[in-house]
Specification:
8% helix; 37% strand; mainly beta; single chain; 101 residues
């Protein structure tokens, strides 16, 4: 399975951790770090004649997710599902998603 786990760690300013889990990832164009993160499903707006369009055609069960992160351009993930959660576990704890442990 192609999986992607994005994880924030607790800090003084933000005492909870956030995890974002993408399942069955078929395309990824994203930076290695995010200062902020907003996720939007934009499947209907997939650009034509790109690697994104090719992934969407090969895997029609997937959705296109746009990740806006405060950077100069948005990031994109083509995946079947996106789940997220927030908890108070300390840094280094196992993921809240059982399939990642």
């Amino acid at each position: 399975m192609n999986r992607l786990l994005l994880r924030s760690f607790p800090s003084e300013d933000e005492p909870t951790r956030v995890e974002v889990f993408f399942q069955y990832v078929q395309y990824l164009d994203a930076p290695l770090a995010f200062e902020t993160l907003d996720i939007e499903v934009v499947t209907e707006d997939a650009p034509e004649h790109t690697a994104i369009a090719e992934a969407m055609a090969r895997y029609p069960e997937c959705r296109l997710y746009r990740l806006t992160h405060g950077g100069s351009r948005p990031a994109y993930v083509v995946a079947a599902a996106c789940l997220y959660g927030q908890d108070s576990s300390p840094a280094g704890s196992e993921s809240m998603f059982p399939m990642m442990t």
